[in-house]
């Protein structure tokens, strides 16, 4: 099922899925890695975004409620409850999911499934609600855990379990038998993937949309549009955000100026870290890339608003051909740094934002994408115009089409609707 968003007056139509309780159980063990854990969170957010409006009151007998359990070794499970009164909108749900931090320990999958049922489902499920559980893991678990609990969710006939197994960051094959046990021996409820980027692929998100909400009702409310952000962006966690601006002649001076204004707007909107080592808030950096050896750093990772403004005002438009691969390596080596010279904050989500139409020298592009994965980097792409190289954009976004923001012209990204969508995405 493909859900096409329509417009009624000013506002988007919304999808209603009836009384639906969804619990995601996501693997936060060391073998998953920070980048893949972020993809798991994006999968959760992207899937729920497709399902329309959430229940405004968790005690309501109707509407969609969502819970999340992240698990690693024993005693480290963390949850967003189905009946959490603070989760009453997509914005509040997304904020809660984004705040989940990678645990990076062992893998106690059976215990996590028991925890999910006992803590989120048993006493909070609604009488007429369909309960769906989506488990994301590499399939293996610590042998010290109780394997009899793999089928714990199967003891309740009103709970439907979908198990997704993914080869982890060390490319080890997941355990298919374990997946089958989690899914109550229903092979149709298991999905095997080779890499975590497949989680956020459009076709798989559409599949999950159909699985979780097969018969939606579409309604168009007569409500005024909201253009203001309703969440405080990037408050509770550290984010190091690096812009990579394509300075090729295709961009043009006018769009170059728009791009700089866009970055300044981002700096003015996000909650900036108070100090260099602050474990909350955002630090920004910007590099403009041209030919292989022609790159300019407007400003390195910083929390200094004056330094950001000064770097933007003095940045020169290169107006040459461009090569994105070398720019990625330069950014990793010099702006992020490595080892003792590491410049990103401990535990920070490192996010690259590419501003390009994709028409760039693609030498070493695959190697650059692999390097981003190794460094646990989350990527977003901003592309404008009618002529784009989709294949390059997808590679830069590491397979996640939802991470690509497009506009007919660059000035559109300065408008509240698209700009706020971008801010919500990176935060």
UniProtKB/TrEMBL annotation:
One of its GO terms (molecular function) is extracellular matrix structural constituent conferring tensile strength. It comes from the Eukaryota. Keywords: Collagen, Signal. The keyword rRNA-binding does not apply. One of its GO terms (cellular component) is collagen trimer. Residues 21-208, 240-422 form the VWFA domain. The keyword Phosphoprotein does not apply. Belongs to the type VI collagen family. Collagen VI acts as a cell-binding protein. This is VWFA domain-containing protein. The lineage of its organism: Eukaryota, Metazoa, Chordata, Craniata, Vertebrata.
